[in-house]
Specification:
By secondary structure, this protein is α+β, with helices and mostly antiparallel strands. It contains eight helices and 14 strands. The chain starts with 16 loop residues before the first strand and ends with a strand.
């Protein structure tokens, strides 16, 4: 599996150009064997946010856990080999935290939050509710409470960037066939409504803001039935920004040629 050159000019926080990449890697130790280091170094990004790392940093070589030129901020699940998030950042934040204060969610390593003068960056691995009723209810509670948390921060005047695997596709053209998947977790009516309500409360889906009618642009493909080859995908990985950052949004792309996981990266560039 090859890794594409992201062909971006270098961006530096001091130049007020900020590039953010988000990627569910479905196991950092696995993707590390497929050229992740080359991807990281060629990304031209200020922030590379990973979800579903499935590891603790002490399980990695230092060159990957704490690479030269990057600051790394980890949140690992209490359960081994499960969930997990990390942000690779070029600049140190004012503050860093993991989770949002609810122990049963925070114990799963689903969130890293970095605060900078111009914005607060959330890297989030939203729960998957597909395994049964218990996890479905867990996911719905997470959506409600985390959404309220973000709206509270926005009401305080905070500029927010919320990246990650949301595990929600909310528009018909965010899935390969809305009729076929209408009863599946991630495209259920209550999940689609949550995403719409979240956006209505002052957040912007960066990709749809710049590509409102783009079709057949997905970020996840099931491993079975060769779904990626036939592009039977879902757009469930998002970068949402608070509406005050919308005028600063210059680029939003899905890097769907990028291999290495059942997800592909998504990216935005902001002028701050």
């Amino acid at each position: 599996m090859g890794f594409i050159d992201l062909f971006s000019t270098a961006t530096v926080l001091g130049d007020h150009q900020v590039k953010v990449i988000s990627w569910n890697v479905n196991g950092l130790r696995s993707v590390a064997q497929k050229g992740f280091w080359e991807f990281l170094e060629s990304s031209g990004a200020d922030f590379v946010c990973l979800q579903e790392t499935k590891c603790h940093p002490d399980q990695l070589e230092d060159a990957l856990a704490f690479p030269l030129g990057w600051k790394t901020f980890w949140s690992s699940a209490a359960k081994p080999g499960y969930s997990g998030t990390v942000i690779y950042a070029r600049e140190s934040p004012l503050n860093m935290q993991t989770g949002f204060g609810i122990p049963k969610f925070d114990a799963e390593g689903r969130m890293v939050v970095l605060e900078y003068p111009a914005f607060t960056l959330f890297n989030v691995y939203f729960p998957n509710g597909a395994s049964g009723e218990v996890r479905h209810k867990f996911k719905q509670e997470f959506l409600r409470k985390f959404g309220r948390h973000l709206c509270g921060l926005k009401a305080q005047g905070r500029s927010l960037i919320v990246v990650g695997d949301y595990n929600v596709a909310y528009l018909d053209h965010d899935v390969f066939d809305p009729n076929e998947v209408k009863g599946e977790s991630g495209f259920l009516p209550e999940e689609r409504q949550w995403m719409r309500s979240f956006l209505e409360q002052g957040f912007v889906d960066s990709f749809r803001a710049l590509h409102p009618e783009a079709a057949n642009k997905f970020t996840w493909w099931a491993y079975y039935e060769n779904a990626r080859f036939s592009n039977r995908g879902w757009r469930i990985d998002h970068i949402c920004i608070s509406e005050d950052l919308r005028p600063k949004l210059k680029v939003a792309e899905i890097l769907d040629e990028q291999m290495g996981s059942d997800h592909c990266p998504v990216m935005i560039e902001l002028t701050l």
